Amino acid sequence: MKAFTGIIALALLLTGCAGEKGIIDKAGYQLDVRRAAQAAYPRVKVLVIHYTADDFDTSLATLTDKHVSAHYLVPDVPPLHNGKPRIWQLVAEQELAWHAGASFWRGATRLNDTSIGIELENRGWQKRNGVKYFAPFSAAQIAALVPLAKDIITRYQIAPYNVVAHADIAPQRKDDPGPLFPWQALAAQGIGAWPDPQRVAFYLNGRMPDEPVDTASLLDLLARYGYDVTPEMTLAQQKRVIMAFQMHFRPARWDGVADAQTQAIAEALLEKYGQR
């Protein structure tokens, strides 16, 4: 009888533990989650913005095949349901999507491992007479993107300088989302980085915006901000890095030429957000 009473008491004790706050019952074991480690950090640190360079149906098919993926796809004109724009989630945020490819940002590689990717349905660029012309983004698409991006940034406490273009993290391969993406307007809503105009003017220091500057000095600034700059880069590769920066922060001129305005913007960004 005493043995039976002991078994009952043990069962009641275990039952009490299972119902205790911070104790989770699993099949064959229990988890105690009452003590969380302080040295724990979210996997997601970067938000990468892309364009699909195709229509919605083709983009959806591409992003759901076996070769490439992204967490979200935002249509050019999202359909409204109960007054809200609909966005397609293709990969759960806790899972890795293959959207960044070979990439580098602020000393980190393998950005797929630490980022969330948002694809925007957009035709990308077409070349006419040797000149690239980029397709604009619709107001409805950007309006749908804003709350999604804000939610992601808040969930993972993503720093402004880690909201980036695909071109920022892979400038030798990518142009997206291009110079028509409204980075400045989004930064005003808390999405991404943008330099303070008065500090840009301070660093411009009376120079003409298109005054040539030393390319190596500019590239040093861009490397300190986060771009992949290496000593063995060719002149064409250097130009691609400068062009990616300009498409993001100086969209009025993105020819890849090192000039005073680009340099002043880079200095103002480093002052505001620090270096990697």
UniProtKB/TrEMBL annotation:
Q: Name one GO cellular component term.
A: outer membrane
Q: Name one GO molecular function term.
A: N-acetylmuramoyl-L-alanine amidase activity
The protein's UniProt keywords, in alphabetical order, are:
Cell wall biogenesis/degradation, Hydrolase
Q: Is Hydrolase among this UniProt entry's keywords?
A: yes
Write down the chemical reaction(s) this protein catalyses: Hydrolyzes the link between N-acetylmuramoyl residues and L-amino acid residues in certain cell-wall glycopeptides
Where does the N-acetylmuramoyl-L-alanine amidase domain start and stop, copy by copy?
Answer: 29-178
Q: Which PROSITE patterns does this entry report, sorted A to Z?
A: PROKAR_LIPOPROTEIN
Keyword Nuclease annotated = no
What GO biological process terms does the UniProt entry carry, in alphabetical order? cell wall organization; peptidoglycan catabolic process; peptidoglycan turnover
State the top-level EC class.
hydrolase
Any idea of its EC number? 3.5.1.28
InterPro entries, sorted: Amidase/PGRP_sf, Amidase_domain, NAMLAA_amidase_2, PGBD-like_sf, PGBDSf
Q: Which family does it belong to?
A: Belongs to the N-acetylmuramoyl-L-alanine amidase 2 family.
What PANTHER family does this protein's entry cite? N-ACETYLMURAMOYL-L-ALANINE AMIDASE AMID (PTHR30417:SF1)
Q: What is the protein name given in its UniProt record?
A: N-acetylmuramoyl-L-alanine amidase
What organism, scientifically named, is this protein from?
Answer: Superficieibacter electus
Provide the organism lineage as a comma list.
Bacteria, Pseudomonadati, Pseudomonadota, Gammaproteobacteria, Enterobacterales
